[in-house]
Amino acid sequence: MLNLDGRLHDTYRRAVMPLLKRRAVAAYAPHITSAFRRVTTELGGSVDVFPLVRRLVFEISAEILAGIAPRDTEELLEAYIHLQAPRPLGTAEGMRAVQRAVRARHALRAGLLAAARRPGGNRDNAVTRLRALDDRPSDLQIAENLSILLLGGYETTGYLLSRMLWLVARHAELQEQLRLGFQRKDPVGGRSLFDAVFAETARLHPPLAHLPRRSGVDLNWAGHHIPAGSHVFFSVLTAHHDPVLFPEPEKFRIGRFGVGKTEETPPGFALVPFGAGPRICPGVHLATLTSRLITQHFLEAFRMNADSDRYVADVTHNGASISPAGPLTITFSQHRERTSR
Ligand code: HEM
Hints:
341 residues; mainly alpha; CATH 1.10.630.10; two-stranded antiparallel sheet; 9 strands; binds protoporphyrin IX containing FE
């Protein structure tokens, strides 16, 4: 879907959208909670949350969107990671990374084709919705759509959620306020403290930094001529770090958004982590609910602590997606009053 234009893009997008509407997504809460319990059973001590949360989010999206059971996700996730890994040219390690990527591509193709061919029963997911189209796509086309949905879902949400947990773990007072907010059942949409933390994390660390576009018309902009048809990038990262829109842009300041807001509201389209317009991310509700529930479960089960003297920067691998340049280490300890879960 991501790489298509025109009729086929619209058909596939329309087919899967009902699964991703706010109301449909609310029904996935039990899957999200049981994935959290499964993945964090043994959790304690100091842990790099990025791989942990990435796995958790992958299991959730694979089960919900593609009907892939958690026990079958390990090889697929590994394949995505190898495909995204850097391949330094002209080095022995680069060659090994290329070989791993080739094997990963085969594994991914086989795993997603198996998911595309699995009998759907009475499941409602992307496979059954794509199969039901009048002009039924081939198994390979379904597998390709699953590939984009899973990649688009786990990489972005996994990164943003681990960044958010790590930022929260650096601020003990904020952590406690969030925990109390969840206990009080602060509103799910709009005005909760969680929404402000989510928005500020997405501003500071947008998972997709630059969005590709094609100029529809001839354009003169800031002294540059951009002919119609040119490939251009809209930089979400640059917009989110514009000091005119967001004073002291490098600082994590939740006062910019939501409850306890202490600053002027940024103008419309200043905050665009999910893009905008007809290609806006269809997974926004799934990403938000997953992040909200998982944050709530972590805060209910654990006290989290991260070193606030050291900041972990980001690296971009392919110019678009981002990952942390080093471990996002959090030390987890169980709340004294809740030793059993
Ligand atoms: C925090 C999590 C996420 C972020 C920040 C994010 C961000 C984005 C952005 C910026 C775009 C491009 C929009 C544009 O070009 O204007 C996009 C597209 C897309 N996202 Fe997400 N996304 C997230 C989660 C998800 C999830 C959970 C799914 C899975 C359902 C998903 C599936 C997609 C797909 C399929 C597209 C392509 C849409 C199209 O071209 O019509 N994303 N996302």
